[in-house]
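Homework help board

Subject: predicted structure for assignment chain

Our instructor gave us this sequence and asked us to write out the predicted structure in token form, then describe one feature. I got the tokens but I'm not sure how to describe them. Can anyone check?
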Amino acid sequence: MKNTALQIGLALSGGGARGIAHIGVLQALEDHGIYPAALAGASAGSVVGTMYAAGLAPSEILNFVKDSKFWRIFRIGLPTDGLARLGYLRERMNAMVKADSFSALQKPLFVSVTNLNLGTSEIRSEGPLLDTIVASCSIPLVFKPVELNGQIYVDGGVLNNLPAAPLREICDIVIGVNLMPHLTAPSHALQSALSIAVRTFELSIVANSLPGIRHCDLVLEPCSMRTYHMFQFNKFKEIYDAGYRTATSAIPQIKALIAEASKVNLPGSSGIL
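My token output:
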């Protein structure tokens, strides 16, 4: 029976290949009759969020990962300007989503992008869709930035990796999926310039995720994500399973949140079956 009183929002963080865990989370929620009605995402989270908001089932999104050879989407190249492009991502998204507009989506979607010119985080929920998604995935120093309305944009995770705030305004329950949780790094793992640089980048993302976490009623953090690096797309099945297990274990908490929120009995929107 459909409950028309509640609306659940799902905020999906960035994390490169780790973003495949979001698909497992969505599948676990649907397997227990829980259907998010609004999505927000940064970087890889915006890719999964877009396809789900467009009406694709989690199984179809997982097939997209398999069929697209997802590692090709984010492959690192060395073109003349030193930065790889995300043209293949745009091409594959266009084939799946059909219409290049937020308004064509079946569910509200909020995408985090970083404006390099102004040094600010922005949330986009209207206008052209595909360039916004590509911008949100454009990891600095790896991928070419995207120009939108005369401004230069890069990965939304640089300043806002868990964009839950806009969901708080329209949803009764907000669940965050944070794939870049705060974890201790042992000293032996911080001995090279690269490892220190990566750790510093991770800590900046951890810090900018805190405001989003505060807007969530529940945050899911698959504990095994640290074992996968951002470009390890060949481990998609393991990463998917980690997301599925984490969400499944949280179902009692989520149902408790639903039961509590149901007491308020807010009319108008639907999000739970």
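Reply (TA_rk): Your tokens look well-formed. For the description, you could write something like this. Residues 76-80, 266-273 have pLDDT under 50 and may be disordered. That's the kind of observation they're looking for.
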